[in-house]
Give the backbone structure.
Amino acid sequence: MTIDLDGPGLWTTSVGSLPKPDYITKARSRFARGEIDRDELLQLERQATREWVEFQDSIGTDVIVDGEQYRGDMVAFFAEELPGLEIGGLVRSYGNRYYRKPIATSEVVRDKPITVEWWEYAQSLTEKPVKGMLTGPYTICDWSFNEHYDSRRDFVLDLAKVIRDEALDLERAGARFIQIDEPAASTRMDELDLVIEAMQVVTEPLTAHTITHICYGDFHNAYPKMLDIPVDQIDLEFANSDFSLLETFGDDAFTKYIGLGVVDVHTHALEQVDEIADGIRRSLKYLSPDKVFVDPDCGLKTRTVDEAKAKLINVKKAVDVVRAEL
């Protein structure tokens, strides 16, 4: 249930979300109409989780994700479980995708674990380590309305305590990798100090390998300050920007473990093994392989199941090629 972080590196993983099979999409619609009960939906969500864990195991993925088959939007999923947050109306997140925007109406607290049972179920299906997956406090705040707190900082720091407690419960359950996603951080680089302050609250008591994922932002101007985010690893997209961020790092300048996004999650096109391997080789001119986790640019939930599987298979094949060369 662990991997040797002193090993050769180039470990394979996924960012977090994976596409839901058609039977989950249909079941969620039926549940919303009252045609099936919560237990029926739960059993199908467990089935989809099992299928994704078994698939990742079958291709040799080093660090497994549960695929978030039981989650809708990454913020609303947590907001629905946190006293102090209410779920508002639909707003557009990107493209033609919508989510129900939470509203802070009182002090946000946590009265029970939210993700631990799902993590335990996924971990029971594999000998590989499974990542605990949490949405970060800054992103929950940024994607919510605030009708209670005097400032964004107050709102974010209360959320940070909530996410810290969830992370601690995951760690107690056995999670050795815990990811705290902060996609909103890339859209407000002027508030990076607040992201750093909140992440310190979350990660300070943890001994697990901590990760944050930040996607599609102005990272060229955030570097090297992003290295102040108190996590062991930062997961970044590279394929979508043709690996241009590497030159910003310079030689041996990236001091943390890195999640190296090597396939674009926003295209139906399948990157070929040689293409992915070349991207990894380019990266190793700037990064040490023993600090690199290789994955897609972001969550794969917007792709079809077949597209996501094909991309993950080719990532693993490309890593095997480069590992053999090393």
Remarks:
- The first strand starts at residue 11 and ends at 12.
- The radius of gyration is 19 Å.
- The chain has a mean pLDDT of 92.
